[in-house]
Amino acid sequence: MNFVSEALNLSRFSTERLEERGILKRAFVKHPFFGDIIEAFRIDKKFGIYEEGTVVVKSSNGLKVFRGFPKIKRILYLESGLKKHFGMKKIALEEKMNGYNVRIVKIGERIYAITRRGLICPYTTEKAREKIPADFFDEFPDYMLCCEAIGNASPYVPDYYGIDGLEFFLFDIREGKTNRPMSVSERKEIAERYGIKMVEILLETSPENINDIKKVVEDLNKREREGIVFKELEMLLPPLKYTTSFSNCSDLSYAFKNFEEYGRDFLLARIVREAFQAFEFQDSINIEERYYRLGRAILSSTIESIKKVWEGKEVTEEIRLKFSDEDVLELFKMHLKLVGVNLKELERKRKGEKIEVKFERTMRATTDKIRSLLEGNPW
Ligand code: ATP
Ligand code: MG
Hints:
With 379 residues, the chain is an alpha+beta fold. It has a domain at 2-66 and 98-198: D-amino Acid Aminotransferase, Chain A, domain 1. 37% of the residues lie in helices and 26% in strands. The chain contains twelve helices and 16 strands. The protein has helices at residues 2-8, 12-20, 78-86, 122-131, 136-139, 184-194, 210-222, 245-257, 264-280, 287-310, 326-339, 364-374, and strands spanning 24-26, 37-43, 55-59, 62-66, 73-74, 91-96, 100-107, 110-115, 143-150, 167-175, 201-205, 227-232, 240-243, 316-323, 344-351, 354-362. The strands form four sheets. Strands 5-13-12-6-11 form a five-stranded mixed β-sheet. A four-stranded antiparallel β-sheet has the order 1-2-3-4, covered by helices on one side. The protein binds adenosine-5'-triphosphate and magnesium ion.
């Protein structure tokens, strides 16, 4: 554990506090697939300057720190929100894609993929080794490629894009130890040069051009996309995020389907977002249509779950993953235990070089609650 205080520049007192408070946790399952790593810990709650998800690694070639990906603040009212935060500065409107956050890094001789809370995920690592050009790290050995992982073979988020397998879309390049981001233009140049897929930049403008910005939101909504991350071009200010009505409603629909698994705050926040958008965009989207869409998102998925339990089934979710290596599959199952995600393997098939595995996740709390209510018990 001594290497943690050395790597993070913490006093012995601070490191003891970290341990006492249970904030320092194991970041991986030991396995030859992770052979470059001797030991790795993650910080599970912001501590001093260190973000949640910060990882400290002792590797075959020294200590490494990978800072957690910073939280992005959300605005609900675009016109004043953008001006207040960015002033007259030039900003990029980047597509906000809905997958899971991955930091791709190099440790020792190989590439590793770290998920948001600081776990080194074997499944994502296998895909990153197949998809990310390793020569980027010859030029930038201590940097992190911050990507959104997306596709129908995602263990953590459903696919909204019709992407087969799992793809990585770059949205930030940051220095591991300091978390300093590259500017938007530097990142664009590097992504092109190394052939790394990048999230789309939809517009470069400044906050006073609110009508152009609103048009981008409307267009994204029509195309059923999640939203926008606003970034000052030099990346000297923190970014801001904003989501479409489509995304607010599809979040609500998913959360209500599994209503006991989701907190009340999650649900309330999305309804309030939708109200602010309805107010700001009142001229452009038919309000009756909004009422209908939101009501439908909430009710239809909840009713669907009730119906399933009524028929004697459970509220579940099916996930199909594709592995290249059987060892990684076994390692991934151990990893899920470490994360505390409960996936049951239902079926395993060989498909050419790949192994396709069907997993099922049961929404225990929601299933039990519905069953109890259907039996006539009070809420
Ligand atoms: P956060 O704490 O960062 O707000 P969250 O879990 O609440 O995270 P989201 O509401 O999905 O997440 O918004 C932030 C996330 O959006 C980022 O962590 C990143 O994974 C994802 N993302 C997708 N596209 C982009 C992009 N173009 N720029 C930055 N982040 C993006
Ligand atoms: Mg997200």
